[in-house]
Amino acid sequence: MSRTFWAFLALLGAGAAASAEEPEAVKILARGSWPHLPTHTSAGIDTDRGHHLWALRTEAELMRVAGQNASPVVAKALKVKVIDFKKQMLVVVEDGTQPMVGVSGGGAPSALYAVAIFRVDRDDKAKTMTVHWQLVPRGKDQGILTRPLEAVLLERSDAEVKFNKLPPADKPFDEPAVAGQVVKPIARAFWPDGWKPEAPRQEWFVRDHSALIDPRLAAPEPVLERMRAEALARYTKALQVETIDFTKQMVIGVSGGVQPAGARVEITRVERDDAKKSLTVFWRLHVPKKDAPAEGIAHVAEVVLVERFAGAVRFEEEAPKKK
Predict the structure, then answer these.
(1) Which of 182, 132, 149, 156 is nearest to 83 (CA)?
(2) Angle at the Cα of 72 from the Cα atoms of 67 and 76, rounded to 5 degrees
(3) Taking the chain, what is the end-to-end CA distance rounded to the nearest angstrom?
(4) pTM, to two decimals
(5) 173-225 pLDDT, tens per residue?
(6) Where are the alpha helices (DSSP H) in the chain?
């Protein structure tokens, strides 16, 4: 046979070997949205134990201290449709300095005082605005306080903002003299745990019944098993399947983090690479159109059911589709 023929066979064999090593598409057996992730997480009781005193005049400033999706959340708490930073501003007081004290009856520990902005003065001549604030006894309807925070919406001013702490409301004190004129609040809102950070994106998989809950949890086995059963019920409902056989199947989940309502996550495909002993999950975040304002926020995620794989699991985000 000619050298050309042998060269052709060699190339053909090399091509077949290369194709045999290419990743193989894994069939997605079921899929469903996953609404069980929180939008915000606790910053921790002992995190950054101090006072935060903010004057916020732009959406960017609000996002920097309260998260990327703070505007609709804060506006809703203030019971206003939107915060118009061209005409309005926020003054905010947060207190993380108080010790957590147990209450009678064995309840969870709490700070004893909330915070309240007592009054705001604006002195146009001095070009200053003074925010008087104080600790106030915890209200019966305020529950457990960890980092009490109050935000007040005001008419916008470019004056220098100063904060003045008054004695606690349940102690005798002299009301400060008004400097200039009193600024009437447009709205105010209170948060018992401060402005919690937004929950981050997550990528996870469950291929064993025991992994349905955090393995670090410590409790009697019947309690843990009940928690696993509850988690399994949530997965079967989301995937619209009767049951999940973890000897043959596994669940894969991807979240896109906290997004405006209307966004969604799509697991576009799953590929198995036997040569590298790995499974790659490709996913994409679909965001709502800019001309379609969202009502609220959500932690968007999707879960899929695939054949069980014992190797490493990798995740790869794909670029959004061009519109």
Answers:
(1) 156
(2) 120
(3) 55
(4) 0.75
(5) 899 999 999 999 999 999 999 998 899 999 999 999 999 999 888 889 999 99
(6) 3-20, 59-66, 70-78, 221-239
